[in-house]
Amino acid sequence: MNSNILEQQNNERIDELSSQVAHLKRLTIDIGNEVGEQNRFLDGMGDGFTNTRDLLAGSLMQIGTMLGGPEQAFQRANVDGTRHVLASARASGARRFVHISTPSVYFRFTDQLDVREDLPLGEPVNSYARTKRQAERLVLAETTLDPILLRPRGLYGAGDTALLPRLLKAAASRALPLLRDGAAVTDLTHVDDVVSAVEAALDLPPMPNAGPERRVFNISGGQPLPIREIVEAAAVRTGLSIRWRPLPVSLALGAARVSETICRLLPNRPEPPVTAYGIGIFAFSQTLDLSAARDTLGWSPRIDFQTGLERTFTPVSP
């Protein structure tokens, strides 16, 4: 295609998206008008998208930006990747396949305490949960591999680049949202406990007649903690001072959904700066029932949160 034509089409698309972004920003600010102080939070988030035209103008000049995106990445990693590993396991004659899934498949925008593995699963909250459920179905269908599914909650530990580091990075640059007065509690799981759970699953005697419902196990530290306490305890380890900003849940979810909508309109569908799921994690409790893991795997967590923090933030000797 002639480069001038391509550039003209890109510019037309940029102008169209810029108009949509501006409209969504106005909607976001309108939501915030009723809550005074929180209006500045939303306006600031909206202003971050005012520069979207410049961002698009640069990125659309690269054809590669039209390929893939977070949703496709989840599909490749969680579904296609699992399918390939299952094929390798079959080819190698593996006798047991242990799959690491996620309690995100349970998530609802409400408090969920002592969730059991047999909880009926509704509509997935996001692409990550959807593709992890697809992967679970693939694994459980491979009955010749005697599969076991583990759903560890909130993994952390030395080398963690996702959970605690992301929270602390956000806290270093801005106030964190305090939703429902910090009422939400959750379980975390230290990586050493996940390893011991995998070992317990591998050591479990063959279960040729077990149905899918007996092959899924919740894993966590078994120590429900307020999310606010988790963040502040991690911050102490790094010398960071945490600032909190009270925010209504409905307002925060509204802003997050606008953010998600904007990013879905962009050609390369980038990861939103804030998501409804991310707000939900801060707003609502989720803890897991570990009875099945104790009774069937003979497994119980051994790393409490303070010990886990010590292992996470203590430098490893070379």
- Give the tally of β-strands: 11
The appropriate CATH architecture of the largest domain is 3-Layer(aba) Sandwich
Assigned CATH class of the largest domain: Alpha Beta
Q: What is the domain total for the residues?
A: 2
Q: Write the element-wise H/E pattern from the N-terminal end onward.
A: HHHHEEHEEHEEEHEEHEHHEHH
Which percent bin holds the helix content?
40-55%
Please give the radius of gyration in angstroms. 22 Å
State the distance separating the first and last CA atoms. Answer: 55 Å
**Shape field:** globular
Rounded average pLDDT:
81
What proportion strand? 5-15%
Structural class: mainly alpha
Question: How do the strands of the widest beta sheet line up side by side?
Answer: 1-3-8
* Low-confidence runs of at least 5 consecutive residues: 14-69
Assign the CATH topology of the largest domain.
Rossmann fold
- Can you identify the CATH superfamily of the largest domain? NAD(P)-binding Rossmann-like Domain
The DSSP helix count reads 12
Report the major sheet.
Answer: 3 strands, parallel
Task: Describe, in plain words, how this protein is organized in 3D.
With 318 residues, this protein is mainly alpha-helical. It has 2 domains: 1-66; 68-313, NAD(P)-binding Rossmann-like Domain (Rossmann fold, 3-Layer(aba) Sandwich), CATH 3.40.50. The protein has helices at residues 3-32, 38-47, 52-59, 70-92, 127-141, 163-173, 191-203, 227-238, 249-265, 276-283, 291-297, 305-313; strands spanning 98-100, 112-115, 148-152, 155-156, 176-178, 185-186, 189-190, 216-219, 225-226, 244-246, 286-288. The strands form 5 sheets. Strands 1-3-8 form a 3-stranded parallel beta sheet, sandwiched between helices. The protein has a two-stranded parallel sheet with strand order 2-11. The longest helix is centred in the N-terminal third of the chain and has 30 residues, at 3-32.
